[in-house]
Design goal:
This protein is 55% helix and 13% strand. With 205 residues, the chain is an alpha/beta fold. The chain folds into two domains: 1-29 and 112-205, 3-Layer(aba) Sandwich (Rossmann fold); 36-109, 3-Layer(aba) Sandwich (Rossmann fold). The longest helix has 29 residues, at 80-108. The relative contact order is 0.22. One of its GO terms (cellular component) is cytoplasm.
């Protein structure tokens, strides 16, 4: 998509990804949140929800016709085949909506910078044509401490959540830019500021 510069932003749980995204938005970037889109595409009346119902049955719906996430999650959590079926429904719908939002951003500003926030970029093998992939990175000890101190999790649950995601090595392998969020907030923001300056310079060439 000529003109628009699309940053794919990812990172493990409690890696500081939201802080990076917020700073980019403060600089003027358009934020697209894949988690939010994944909720939007399965709202009542959507094709994706109809397909989920046809695939998994009425028991994954609430009485009002909305998706019962807990019921669906229990169906797919330990069943790779069912999870693959669900992903085959949801992921294309999310990508189509993301493309629509990127086109909207381009129409509003042909030189827009879009930050597409995709927590599971590696796990879901998202193959969007990003101009740059940015990984927010903090070591496992730091992320565990954040989950315990800031989110009230116990250490066992925090470790389980980290273990269920892609490894640091897998994420870093796809990175064009790594934002080190292990240090102070000021250090993280300095790196994001430098990243934005680099992107604007590329667009202004």
């Amino acid at each position: 998509m000529a003109g628009v510069y699309v940053i794919g932003l990812t990172g493990g749980i409690a890696s500081g990804k939201s802080t990076v995204a917020r700073r980019l938005v403060e600089h003027g970037a358009v934020h697209i949140d894949a988690d939010h889109l994944a909720r939007v595409v399965v709202e009542p009346g959507t094709d994706a929800l109809a397909r989920i119902r046809a695939t998994f049955g009425d028991e994954v719906l609430n009485a009002d016709g909305s998706l019962n996430r807990a019921a669906l999650g229990s169906r797919v959590f330990c069943d790779p085949a069912s999870l693959a079926q669900l992903n085959a429904i949801v992921h294309p719908a999310v990508r189509a909506l993301a493309n629509e939002l990127i086109r909207d951003a381009e129409q509003a500003d042909p030189d827009a910078v879009v930050v597409y926030d995709v927590p599971l970029l590696v796990e879901a093998a998202v193959d969007h044509p990003f101009d740059l992939i940015v990984v927010a990175h903090a070591d496992e000890e730091t992320r565990t401490r954040r989950m315990v101190d800031l989110r009230g999790m116990d250490e066992t649950d925090a470790a389980r959540r980290i273990g269920s995601q892609a490894s640091d090595a897998d994420r870093l392998a796809v990175a064009n830019v790594v934002i080190d969020t292990d240090g102070t907030l000021a250090h993280t923001l300095q790196q994001v500021d430098a990243l934005y300056e680099r992107v604007r310079a590329a667009l202004d060439r």
